[in-house]
């Protein structure tokens, strides 16, 4: 009988043989760190354990010993730390790491030890082969916390404690500061909590303390906005921080910065005065604190109105533009705007605001009304940009329109998570019944509240709104013919004399006179031809025609800065031998111009501001030259220099447009540092208009010993760069500074890049005004060394200039092809025999004409017979004819095309297919840009 022990030991008297007559119990061997599990007749130790040899057994036997490892326990004594659960293991366990998660407030864990005296370290793991129950003891070391002091211009003693532990009781030091008395330390930066004198036992965490001081026996002058404070002892001026002896007589004078401001209060050691000067005695203790406030007593100009598209600006998708329109709310001299505290700029028209960053950002837009004799009237509007974009689309039948409950256009896009609100305005005249109307959003039926408002909240995907379940009303339009002419539906002269149309459809009817006759009016008295109206009932139309008598037209120019207006009672349609009188109205920014006026290229004289033309026998073209914008010469204050943003040149002696941008730089005298401008702004350098520059002067403070860095900004042509609410030349170490780069419209094609010490910076915000001026903001964070800022990629725009010839004459240009922004191209128009030049496409009638290139352009002129009547609004300059008459837009196209109509703010008003020939469209009164197909845009006025 063989007994393999697998590492165990049998008793000494173990039997190893037997006979058929033998019966006995198998031995019970032993093995350290294991428990015997029985004998098995196979090496796999499977089956039933065998405990004995029974009588009658035969054959040689081999039994294998089975062993189970003894389970041991590790217990942990955490010595004040959080509890640690005991662990179990056996001698065969693989090496494992001891737990290190126990915590103790104010202490750091230093490892496990074998003994309670913490003299024998155990290590970080239990290795394979270890056995036995045992206890491990945690060792702790005290955590040291940092103490930081903000002495606010004071100095701590050299032995001021800088660290502490939970077991320490730390007495805080007493700092020193010239001319001040130390009050105590505060944990609150605003000094609103209790004074701290010590860090008591049991305190944990880093601590920062802020020093509170009271004035010593010195004079402290707070520099006010919109004025100055002067303190004198006899004839000697006392500066802020100077020490003055007790009972010394001081004269304090508070002077407004200009006549617009009055002293509101002068405060001397908490005593308020309303007049200046004041004479006071220097106290023996506590020093003297002086401040003043100046108020503008003038009445405020009426605050302007701000409207935005979209109206709700709480959930604007990042990257989407918001169109901002401002409107005077009363009389004022000028309307300005400011974005996020930037220098106010003259408002010339709607502008757009957008962001580049995807992070949530709120932009503050201010509208400022400025009026002589009044203080500014200000309105502020916040625009919040957020990530994601969700759109809403309305599929609505004619007669139903969606409106914004808050006014204006329906919001068509919001940031993800935003809401759509709209009302449906139903004109019941369009529909036979509304009983079965159904409104759905993405296929789900929606219902309004009691006010008729539909709300779709927390939208995360695009929305399509449909209206169904209704049928429309129709009307019969009947045309009755009369002698000497005919009437027909416009663009469809061969159609029947009656037509059935839907309620609200536009209908256009044209009256066409026979030879030697002209259209006089419709039988109901209306004179518009073509006549366009909305079908609201059954209508019958008939026209009157009368004998024709020829006349001539006076063509007036359309110019920026001046309006040419007929004198009351005079029409631009003049009969043979008639006369025409007119005058010029110069806009405010052009009122220094010296106009020269021509009639068919002959100079006219003016009599009491009126120009007259007599005995007219041909068409007359009025031209006006010499209209230029006013300019100013900026007068700079002491310690101020300025650079013209357009040219990069010093502005000294230059005459600039009033809204030309310049970069103001305040250079502090020796021993001083720039504080702010007299209007309270702290931008240095600062980008302002030439008109505003003369009103600004810098304020300075004594230089301190605080560690600073300098941000060096480049001088540029085509763009200006400045700091936002900071002095770029003196930035405290560790602080951040925001830079503002303003790129002129003439450089809008530039791929601008900004570098700080050679590293390219990303713009955090992009703003674009109506003038196409683009403003980019950059943030330089945590400055620790001087920074050189560089700007690359600025390039003057280039445009394509081409010519297009028209019937009736030839036009020539001094230069075509690629030209730079601002290039002056001389245009000349030569009419064919019997014709006259009428005007250029932009409305100017000068010939030759010095045209300034500011965009891609196709230059063309229009011609007409010199002795045939032409209409002021009906001059055709291409195969496509676009004009306004009778309150409608009229289009004649040689082919099927697409019509696009925009407001002057750039909003698409209408897009529709148009047929070959004539068509007309009813539009509200206003000015529009109209384009047919890929042709040039044309500006029209609907009156």
From TrEMBL:
Domain Bacterial repeat: 219-295, 482-548, 799-865
Top-rank taxon: Bacteria
Residues in coiled coil: none
Family matches, as InterPro entries: Bacterial_rp_domain (IPR044060), InlB-like_B-rpt (IPR013378), Listeria/Bacterioides_rpt_sf (IPR042229)
Subcellular location: Cell envelope
GO cellular component, one term: cell envelope
Pfam entry (one): Flg_new
Protein's name in the database: Bacterial repeat domain-containing protein
Organism encoding this protein: Parabacteroides merdae
